[in-house]
UniProtKB/TrEMBL annotation:
It is a multi-pass membrane protein. Signal peptide: none annotated. The lineage of its organism: Bacteria, Bacillati, Actinomycetota, Actinomycetes, Micrococcales. SUPFAM superfamilies: MFS general substrate transporter. This is MFS transporter. It comes from Microbacterium terregens. Its main location: membrane. The keyword Cell membrane applies. Keywords: Cell membrane, Membrane, Transmembrane, Transmembrane helix, Transport. Residues 24-437 form the Major facilitator superfamily (MFS) profile domain.
C-alpha cells in the first residue's frame, strides 16, 4: 500500500497555491539568468579579449584556440548532467540547483582575478580552461533541475508557459552579459578595457550568485519528486535505467536541441561579436555598438521564447517546433548577408530575425523534454539529453565557423553548416509524437514509459 501524497499536492504532481507557483517561476528565471550570465560572459570575452590576453603566443591560431575553450566546457556538461541527474532523481531538484549555482559563481569570479599570459605564462590559459570546465559541469547540471522545478509545478495546460521561465534565462543572461560588457567599453574604453575593464563583469557574478541563492532557498521542492519520495519510489540507479530503456529517445531528444544550439551559439558563443569587431576582417565595427546590437537581439529572443511556450500550450510542442525550424532557416539565410554590410542597424536586424526562430525552437523545450521521460528518471533524462545536444550543437559551433571562414575566406560555408544543423533538428522533431498534457506524476509511470518515437511501441 503506497503512502498518500503530502497535504497540498494533487495526484498529478501540481501544487495548489498560486503564490507558490509564481515564486517557483520567479526563482527559475532569476536562477537560470544568473547561471547563463556567468556562462555567456566568458563566451563574450573570448571574442573580445581572451585571444589577445591568454592565447597571443599562438599567433594566427589564437582566435581558433580561444573559441575552442568555449567548446571544452561542453565536453564536461555530460559529467554535470550525470551527477545532477543521479542526485536530482535520488535527493531532489532543489539541492542540485543550489550547488550548481555556487559552483558556477565561484568559477566565474575566479576568472575575473586570473593573471594573463604576460604575467604567469602558460599557466594563464591552463587555469582559464580549468575554470571553464567547472562552468561546464555546473551548466550541465543546472538546466534539468530548473526545468523540472518549473514544469512539475505547472498546471497541465500551462506547462509551455511555465517551462519557458527557465528558457528565458538564456536570452536574459545574454542580455545581461552583453549589456554589462557594452557598458564597460564606455567606462573603460580602448586599452583600459583590455587592462581591467573586462574583469568587472566576471567579479559582478559574486553579487548575482548571492541574489540567486537567496531566491532559490525560498522555493519548495518539486511536487513530483515529493510524491516519489513519500512513496519510496525513487530510482536507485536512474542513469542505468535511463539508458537500458530509453537510449534512442535520449539521442533523438539531443538532436532536437543540437539544431537550436549550433545556431544560437553564433551569438551566445561569442562568434558574431568576434567576427564583427575583428579589425582585420570584412566588417570591422567597434566593440560597443556590436555589443549593444547583441543586447537588443537578446530582447527579441526573450520575447519569442516566451511566446513559443505560450503557443505550445495551444497547438502542441511538435507543431510549435516545426514553425520554429522554418523561422530559424529564414534567420540563418539572412544572418551573414546583413552582418557583412558593416552597418550596425542591419547587424541588429539580422540577429533579431535569427532570434525569433531560436525562440520558437527553444521556448517549448522544457515542456517537451519533461513530457518525454518517466517521473522516476526524468531529471537524468532531460539533463543528459540536453548535455549531449549541447555537445553535438553549440560546443564547437564558433570554432567550426571560425575555421570555415579562415579556410574559405567567406561566410557562405558557415551558413550551410547552420542550415544543416537546423534540418537535423527538424528531422529529429518529426520522429517524436506530441505528448503535450501527459500526466507527469508517479501514478502514470506506465503511460510515460511508452515510447514517444514513431514506429516504437515501447521504449
Amino acid at each position: 500500500m503506497t503512502a498518500p501524497p503530502p497535504q497540498g499536492f494533487t495526484p498529478t504532481g501540481t501544487i495548489a497555491s498560486t503564490t507558490d507557483r509564481r515564486r517557483v517561476v520567479f526563482a527559475t528565471v532569476v536562477g537560470t539568468t544568473v547561471e547563463w550570465y556567468d556562462f555567456f560572459i566568458y563566451a563574450t570575452a573570448v571574442g573580445l579579449v581572451f585571444g589577445q590576453l591568454f592565447f597571443a603566443p599562438l599567433g594566427a591560431n589564437s582566435a581558433i584556440i580561444a573559441f575552442a575553450t568555449v567548446g571544452v566546457s561542453f565536453l564536461f556538461r555530460p559529467l554535470g548532467a550525470f551527477l545532477a541527474g543521479h542526485f536530482g532523481d535520488k535527493y531532489g531538484r532543489k539541492v542540485v540547483l543550489m550547488w550548481t549555482l555556487i559552483l558556477m559563481g565561484a568559477a566565474t569570479a575566479l576568472i575575473g582575478v586570473l593573471p594573463t599570459y604576460e604575467a604567469i605564462g602558460v599557466w594563464a590559459p591552463i587555469l582559464l580552461v580549468l575554470l571553464r570546465i567547472l562552468q561546464g559541469i555546473s551548466a550541465g547540471g543546472e538546466w534539468g533541475g530548473a526545468v523540472l522545478m518549473a514544469v512539475e509545478h505547472a498546471p497541465k495546460k500551462r506547462r509551455g508557459v511555465f517551462g519557458a521561465a527557465p528558457q528565458i534565462g538564456v536570452p536574459l543572461g545574454l542580455l545581461l552579459a552583453s549589456g554589462v560588457m557594452a557598458l564597460m567599453t564606455v567606462i573603460a574604453p580602448g586599452d583600459a578595457f583590455l587592462q581591467w575593464g573586462w574583469r568587472i563583469p566576471f567579479l559582478l557574478s559574486v553579487v548575482l550568485i548571492l541574489v540567486g541563492y537567496y531566491v532559490r532557498r525560498r522555493v519548495e521542492e518539486s511536487p513530483v519528486f515529493t510524491e516519489l519520495a513519500a512513496r519510496k519510489e525513487k530510482a536507485q540507479m536512474p542513469i542505468i535505467q535511463l539508458f537500458r530503456k530509453h537510449t534512442l529517445l535520449v539521442v533523438i531528444a539531443a538532436l532536437v536541441f543540437a539544431g537550436n544550439n549550433a545556431v544560437g551559439y553564433m551569438t551566445t558563443g561569442g562568434y558574431i561579436q568576434g567576427y564583427a569587431t575583428n579589425p582585420e576582417g570584412p566588417v570591422g565595427l567597434e566593440r560597443g555598438p556590436v555589443l549593444w546590437a547583441v543586447t537588443g537581439s537578446a530582447v527579441t529572443w526573450l520575447l519569442s521564447t516566451f511566446l513559443a511556450g505560450w503557443v505550445s500550450d495551444r497547438i502542441g510542442r511538435r507543431s510549435t517546433y516545426i514553425i520554429g525550424w522554418i523561422l530559424q532557416l529564414v534567420g540563418v539565410f539572412t544572418l551573414f548577408p546583413l552582418v557583412n554590410t558593416g552597418n550596425v542597424g542591419l547587424l541588429f536586424l539580422g540577429l533579431a530575425i535569427l532570434t525569433i526562430g531560436l525562440g520558437f525552437t527553444y521556448g517549448p523545450q522544457a515542456a517537451l523534454y519533461s513530457e518525454l521521460f518517466p517521473a522516476s528518471i526524468r531529471f537524468s533524462g532531460v539533463s543528459i539529453s540536453y548535455a549531449i545536444g549541447a555537445i553535438l550543437g553549440g560546443a564547437f559551433a564558433p570554432t567550426i565557423a571560425q575555421a570555415l571562414v579562415q579556410a574559405t575566406g567567406s561566410t557562405t560555408a558557415v551558413t550551410w553548416y547552420l542550415v544543416g544543423m537546423t534540418l537535423v533538428g527538424l528531422a529529429a522533431t518529426l520522429l517524436l509524437r506530441d505528448r503535450s498534457g501527459i500526466p507527469l506524476g508517479p501514478d502514470h509511470e506506465a503511460e510515460q514509459s511508452v515510447s514517444p518515437i514513431y514506429g516504437l511501441a515501447k521504449a
